Amino acid sequence: MAPxxxxxxxxxxxxxxxxxxxxxxxxxxxxRDIPSSLIxxxxxxxDDIPAGHSAAVASQFRDLDNFGTDLWNLSSQLKRDSxxxxxxxxxxxxxxxxxxxxxxxxTEGSLRNALRVFKIAMRTTKHCLDQRQLSLAGRVVxxxxxxxxxxxxxxxxxxxxxxxxxxxxxxEYFILRTTVAWRQNRLDxxxxxxxxxxxxxxxxxxxxxxxxxxxxxxxxxxxxxKKEYVEAVRxxxxxxxxxxxxxxENLSSDxxxxxTSIMHSLIRTxxxxxxxxxxxxxxxxxxxxxxxPGDKLTVLLLKLDLLATDDSSPLQDYSEVLERIxxxxxxxxxxxxxxxHHVHKLKSRNSxxxxxxxxxxxxxxxxxxxxxxxxxxASVTAIWVVTTSTDIIDCVASLEKLFETLNVKLIKxxxxxxxxxxxxxxxxRIEGSYSQEDYGNAERWGRLALHSIFESAGELNxxxxxx
Length: 467
Fold this sequence. Notes:
Elements: H1 11-31, H2 38-46, H3 55-59, H4 61-81, H5 86-104, H6 111-130, H7 134-151, H8 163-183, H9 187-197, H10 206-225, H11 229-244, H12 253-271, H13 276-290, H14 296-309, H15 315-328, H16 333-347, H17 351-366, H18 372-387, H19 395-409, H20 416-435, H21 439-449, H22 459-466
Helix pairs in contact: 1-4, 2-5, 4-5, 5-6, 5-7, 6-7, 6-8, 7-8, 8-9, 8-10, 10-11, 10-12, 11-12, 12-13, 12-14, 13-14, 14-15, 15-16, 15-17, 16-17, 16-18, 17-18, 18-19, 18-20, 19-21, 20-21
């Protein structure tokens, strides 16, 4: 790699230095023998690329365009064969794009070439965004602004014949600018770019509509994570409006999932806002989702979340929704944890309901599916529900029935870990009854702890319980 030359103030000499560096960069990248200092070198030359019209630039149009084209194509090869870091690929693309822009803005640039540079600028911006090179993305997309305005001028002689192409590219540009502005934490600028699209939102092609909706959805999620719930609702509603304005038959299969995700996020956001009207809006969305094809488990979980946040909602409704989930859900580790989470929440309000549902889960689903590990976890939870409850009428009888049924249904007793956890919970009730001189109940709890379902307990533990 040639050493960095002393920079000179006049445009002609600056341009010569840039072209010498571009030639050196091209040769270095072709050899794939990339020095560690190359990224720093490229950054150093980005600011030196001339901008605007000048005779000096016009005289070097061909070299600038050729180097820009060759470096752009080479960057694609570097990306494919992974012979350069993601940052260097982004840098080379940005450098190439700025060379092409410098050439185009000279007096030699044609409208056809302007269209090519516009497309390359947007592709470069997208690539930089994907690689989280926000500074480069912002720099390149600002160059694209010139071409968007140029190509959509009514006075542009090429505009009438290619109006649809230019208009669609212009829409793509404003979507991209909206994304860049959001990533730069410039929601005011994102709003401005979105306003440029507002008159033609319903005219977006399906691909552009999905792209814009996805961007607005991400902005909404970002605002939710920042606890800016009012703003989150506004952006999520914008995301939904874009998809709603489309003919669903023309959208991809991913659009349905996107719309569902938007609705789910909107519901959860509304749940964080005070006021009965927000609660009603959330319920309306849930009920609409329930009437549409899709993942019913997610809808049921949203219902549970809404019911859990509303202390005035009937507890029976919460129990019935959870029961429906238990009866119908596909058994996975994630779904099992979700069910157990909601059993814990139900237990805090009604232990009897929680115990009934955990029994149903164990015997109607887990035992039948031969999920021994989950059976043990659920059984210990059932013991915890009963031994820590104050509203189950006959705790000992409830557990006796549970243990007897487990004894019949299971091929072998509970394992050592579940046995140890269960006996500890029962031992606390034994001690509690004994300290209150309720020796009859202490004995009943003790017999439960010695049940054959706990056969894995060691002789030392059983001896302690027998005493």
